[in-house]
Amino acid sequence: MNTETGVLERLQHEPMSAGQWYVVAICIGILALDGYDVLSIAFAAPGLAAEWEISKATLGVVLSLELMGMALGSIIMGALADSRGRRPTLLLGLVILTVGMAIAGIAPNIYILGAARVFTGIGIGGLLAAATATSSDFCNDKNRSLAVVLVAGGFAFGVYLGATFLAPLLKQFDWRVTFYLGAVLSLVFIPLVYFFVPETISFLERKRPEGALERIQVIMRRLGHSIPSSLPPLETRESHPIGMASLFKPGLAPITFILLFAYFGNVGTYYYFVKWIPTIVSDIGYTSSEATSVLGIISLGGVIGSIGLSIIARFLPIRPLMVLCLVSAAAGVAVFPYFTETLQSMRLFGFVTGLFIFAAISGFFGLFAVSYPSSLLGSGSGLVLGVGRGGAVLGPMIPGFLFAAGLLLPTIAIVMASGSFLAGVAVMFLRPKGTAVQS
What we know:
The chain has 15 helices and no strands. The two termini are 13 Å apart. Mean pLDDT is 85; it is low at 1-5 and 434-439. Helix 2 (18-52) packs parallel to helix 6 (144-172) and helix 3 packs antiparallel against helix 14. It has helices spanning 7-13, 18-52, 56-83, 86-106, 110-137, 144-172, 177-196, 201-207, 212-223, 253-284, 288-312, 318-335, 343-371, 374-404, 409-427. The chain has one domain (7-427): MFS general substrate transporter like domains (Growth Hormone, Chain: A, Up-down Bundle), CATH 1.20.1250.20. By secondary structure, the protein is mainly alpha-helical.
């Protein structure tokens, strides 16, 4: 159970102010930016493959490259968020994102594009972990699961907005416009975070940097809460586990291993589905714009599914909800090839599948919040996100080799759907120890 006292108890038990919800809203925007940037390569893939005449096996590797960077960024920058602060980690991630997307837009060949995507992935991975920890730290106990899942749902919202705006743009411009748009949006978020997202009270109260009390007083006044006149002496407070090694100590180790396995499997299925859909639809004979619109409808279902899960999670435990979403996502991905007769049927069934597959991705952030204490939330979510990116890398890569080997889409879909199914089975055995409060 989270035992942090004093000023933190005021945030955890008092009603949330508008200032706290502003922070949550900005974190939702950051995850939306991440969603767009991750899928930008999928939006660009049909035009990129045609212009540079690359094979499906090579395309599978290209679609996976930023996920390798995300693994590194999630682990390193997730730990950085716990040790150096949420706010500087968010700003660093946004700078990396802006530079990486800009370089991808001007890349003259596949090698520079690939390097830019790896670099961009580092920023995306860091933002995923830092934004989750930031939103959780600024929430009270009542709204924590709701807010964290809403923040994670921003990922689907970003994919939807990207597909919606890019479908008409891709009729007028080439595939590079996807990266130019991402660079501009990332740049816009830097001043938003700088001016409107303070360092979290949890970090300042735990780490006690110079001037911690004064900074906390300013932030509490800004958030509309009572202002503390002093902080409890460190020696009177129960120590909290800090550092990656604490994730594998008795009590937390089973939780960490289950989350690692489940997230690894699920993101493999997820990234296969969302990154190959535009290419699959294009191969059937539709234009890049039409293929992007299918992914847009899938992500619209994801927005609704993520929001729906966040609302239901206020009333029901997140774990059984996640089992339902994971198994349903696996079923949808496995049978999608049987609904490719028309563009309308792909949109309709894709919408339903998107409800569950994006909700499952968002729900993992809710599981993080109820499984790890604040002092380990950045490290814990960062580790799971980072190692899980192994599944994300394999998700787009494996189908490329399977297509090249001559396997048909229905067989490949079943193979790739197994990741979410096995994740659902694993989550059945997850027993959070109450390290964070569950709504």
